Structures are given as structure tokens and as C-alpha cells.
Amino acid sequence: MATQFEHLYAELKSVFAAAYDEIFVTDGSGYTVRVNNACERNYGLTAGQMVGKHVTELVETGIFSPSATLDVIEKRKQINLVQQTQNGRKLLVTATPVFTQDGELIRVVSNSRDITELLNLREQLDQLQEQVDSYQETLKQHERETGMQFSIRSRAMLKVLDRVEKVARVDSTVLFLGESGVGKTHIARYLHNMSPRRAYPFLSVNCGALPETLIESELFGYEPGAFSGAHAKGKQGLFEAAHRGTLFLDEIGELPLSAQAKLLNVLQDKHFFHIGGTSPIHVDVRVIAATNHDLKKKVAEKTFRNDLYYRLNVVPILIPSLRERKEDIIPLTLRFLEEFKEQYGIEKKLSYSASEELLRAEWPGNIRELRNLLERLVVTIDEDTIMPEHVTSAMFDGEEPVLFSPEFSLKQQLERYEGQIVRQAYDKSGNTYELAEMLGISQPSAVRKVHKYVKE
Fold first, then answer.
1. Rounded Cα distance, 222 and 219, in Å
2. The model's pTM
3. CB 293 within 8 A of CB 303
4. Span 180-196, pLDDT tens digits
């Protein structure tokens, strides 16, 4: 029998010592009887330095405060509190009284868990939430002032808008960077509406959408009879039309070298000449540029002027892709559905499972792709509620999504999937050179895949 008790005592002693949470035991008067290894970690004292001492002494010497044990002795019931230790730890303490059958208090057993990191994380989370709330309130105020609407929840985009609002106060040249469809034009207009130039024109031109022969005349205008086909009265360019306002040059990386030199002169000297003109035209225009290309790479390839790059890259602002800020997908979706309701008189609701499907998508076309997909759903589906199968079907442009089928081999099913990818990518690229770059394959491979899947 003695051996059995010895084994039981040894087992309990091992469990007591191995417990990760602190176990602190006193007698009914408050004198420390036993502590485990966690106490040494929490208080920076050995067991020998604590056992035998009254908890009042430990509190008075600053080892910890307050004492749950003293509260238990006074109130004769279980006590929960947060305790601060001398080495800066915070402990969640549960102190429990142990009574004899006669009601005599003989032990107080305290179990304590270190919650220092948890409290620190909570404090950081509260601070982040305060920042987000502040951003959201500021955003709402600016939306009222500018008449523009943003559906933003992500911290990444809130930081972008915060930076935009700061640079809007001055006339520094801004270069928006980011993939196609992330909303560069919308944010450029927001910058203009937040600036002192808001009462004057905001004009926008896509440098990649105009033929090289026309881009200079669009930007700088021309004199009567400057070239064959010119208007008899000449033409005012966008720089003149945007005087005292803002000119947004989208896809600046597509600007021809000849126009780049003239643009650089305007940015530096604030004047230019009409095509065929000899008199300088002075303008006060803020220029905002945007690109989805790597301009440094274009500089290295000699297709973009180094001096113009540095003149434009005064305040670069990277707008993250939609897949990098998925918190914005559902707010944007709800806003677009409201817009289509007003535009077409068609109301569609979004099911929870459909919203999950939207969140899982990669959105290579970003906000533009999301908006187009939702417009397609609003005007084509008969149901009042958008379901996940509607989203999946629309994403595959009406093709059935690739699912496992026992009727086809793995090779055949992979080819079906590859075909869908190639067709969608070719629709976006339009030629095999861009397709090859988009898919990360050689141009001859792109040609073969187009003949196999697109022109078969």
C-alpha cells in the first residue's frame, strides 16, 4: 500500500512540475506551500525563494500585484483577476479555496496563465481598428466633398488613399503604378477633386489608345494647315484645355519617344509649341501619369527616356491588385449591383455561397473584370439571386468549368483546361507575342497553342 501511495505521489509531483500554467499553493493563512516551475518563469525567483513566504510579503516587495490569494482568504470564494509581475508579465489568475469538512480553509490553489502576448496583440488590434475607423471616417468625409464613391475596406487601399490625399495638396507629379483595371483613373480623378485645382478641368488620355501620328496633335495641338488633313482653324491640345487643372496621362509607357521629348519640356519649362507653330504657349497644368509597365525596364531597353522617367517618378504610388485586397471584393460587388439596379432597373441579390466564389477568384483583370462579370450576370441570368454556379459559368465565358470526368483521361482533361486558359488569355492579348509573355512560354509555343485551341 505504501508503494502505491509513493507511486501516486510521484505521479502527481511530475504532473505538478510539468504543467505549463503556473500553480501556486498556499496554506489557509497565506503562506506559500508549493510552486511549480512556471512560477519561477513568471516571477524570476526560484521555488526556494518563494516557499515559506507570506503572499503579503511577496506583494510588498513587488514580486506580483494584486494577490488573488488574499482575496480568497478574505471572501472565502473563488477569485479571478489579472496580475502584474515584477518582470512585466500579465497573468490571468484563478484562485480557488480548499476547505475541510468542517469548513476550515486549509489551502488556496492559484492557477495562472501568462496572457502578456495576448493582451499586447489585443492592444495592437485595437490600435489598428482605430486607424481603420479613422481612415473610414476621413474617406466618407472626402466622398461627400468630392462627390466620388469608394467601396474600400482593405487597409492597403486605405493607405493608398491617405497618401493620395497628402500629395493632392501640392503640385508634385504623381505616377500611379499597378496592373490594368485596378482603378488608376478613378483614383487620379479623386486626387484632382481633393486638390486646389478641383474647380478646373480634369482631362484624361490613354497614350496607348491613340496612333503615334495623332498623339502629339492630341496633347499639344497644331496650327492651321500644319499637316495634311489638319483642321483649317487648327486645334487646341489637351495641355491647353487642361490649363490650371489636371491632365491624366494613362499608359504613359506607350508614349512614343518623339512625344516623350516634348512632354519633358512641358514638365520642365511649363510651355510648348503647337505642331507647326513658332510661338510658345505657357500652361499651368498638373500632370498625373499611370502605367502597368515596368518603366525601369523600358528605360533599359531604350524605349522610354531616362530623364522623363525621373521627372514623372516624383511621387510613385502603387495601387495593389484586387487579389491583394480581397476585403474590397464584396463591398465593390454590392456597389456595382446597386449601380446596375439604377442603370437597368434590374435588382439582383448576392448569395453567401456566390460571394465565397467571388473571393476565391484571382481576378487578373482586377476591378474592371469584376464589374464586367457582374454586369453580365445582372443582364443575363433569370433568377433574382446570384448563385455560385452563375459566377463560375460567367468566369469561364459560358464554357463549362473543368471538372473531373471519368469519360476522359487526365491528359484530355488537362488539355480542356489548357484550352480555356489559352482562349481567355488570347482574347486579352490579341497576338501571340503578348500571349507568350502573359503565359510565360516561347512565342513558337504560343503560335502552336493558338492554332490548336483558338483557330482549330
1. 9
2. 0.59
3. no
4. 999 999 999 999 999 99
